[in-house]
Amino acid sequence: MDISIRLLSAFNKTKYIFCCVTLFLLLQSNLMAQSGFAFSGLTDFEYAKAGSKSHYYYNEIDKDAIDGHFGIAQLNIMGRLNINKHLIFNARFLLEKDKGVKLNKFAVPQLNVQWVSKKRKVGITVGSFTNPFGSFNQKQLSTKRNFIGLPLAYSYFNNISDKIGFVKDLGDVAKIPIDNEVQWGSTNLYYGEYTTGAMFSWNIKRSKVNWKIALVSGASNLQKQFSDPLHFGVISRLKIQPTYFWEQGFSVSHGNFYQSSEVGDLLSEKPKFTQSTIGMDFKIGKGYFEFSGEVIGSFYKVPQFNGDELSFDANTIKSPLNLSNLAVNLDIKYELPVIQGSYIAYRIDHLRFSNLENSNTQNWDNNVLRHSFAIGYHINQYILMRATVSTQKIDNKEWNGKLGTFRLVATAHF
Known about the structure:
The chain is mainly beta and 414 residues long.
């Protein structure tokens, strides 16, 4: 019986993927001759190896894949259809490894309709689109990133779960199964999918000042496009470009992220899970050098959960805990003038957590410091090669030298 269910599930998933790919191929064959349609694809082939304490929730390498593995990391099909001079339809189909293990996670992260004014002064986007918060969210495709791994703000899972709130040492020590899944917390910003809602964009001064504001389906760390219960959030970013070599951005977001669960549904009063973020990003280019980075503060209001009793702390349901952290990353890139299309890069990445309430010594999670080095080479306009090495230190963990990673990726795109 179980085998039949698994076979049926696999068949349905394959049929779903096949239908979506077929739809795109039909669009391609019927519309490629028309100037209003653009079609592209991208595939990442990756070899990865990591230290003995590595885990997907710490450094994006699963604990069962640390000895070195090669395979397809993700497949992308993107399409853009200009319906007329003002209406644009955008779509992206994605097949990627689920938590870095098996290539069986299918998603449609981008599916939206965009309206732009005659001179593209203003625009409105409805559907699933890139989260406008910060600058790194704009680098969804791997060809737009100098490094293979994501900054800590987008990839490191902290001690706050969207189902049970705050638990000390969640995941690695406190293994709490909720709805048949061990809770590992969440990242400050969810990078794997886009956000869903409606966005207004205004080019206040063309190529100089742009402002975006979006009403979306929850906080920026929400990992589902449609939550249960349904939430609302707001995200905004102001980007200015004072000179041709300097871009500066300022972002804010606020929303709810509580997800229904077997323990939360028993409460007469639904707990409040809110996240507010504020960020600053920049990019400065001078000669062969490029400097870029982000500073992001995240502020949470969540209840505390007792893992032994599998219940919420009653006091924190009425008066949620106030928890915060600060994420900072700086990227330095140098393009090698002797080898056209090549570069080397260095990133320093830090995630620092505030103290627990009523404590001057104990943080609500362990501080993290990561160093990353990368080299890249555009072999031609269709193939990009990148290699990265990283080291990572987590406070209060005797894991020095055991969280390092090596990743080699060949990206084919057209």
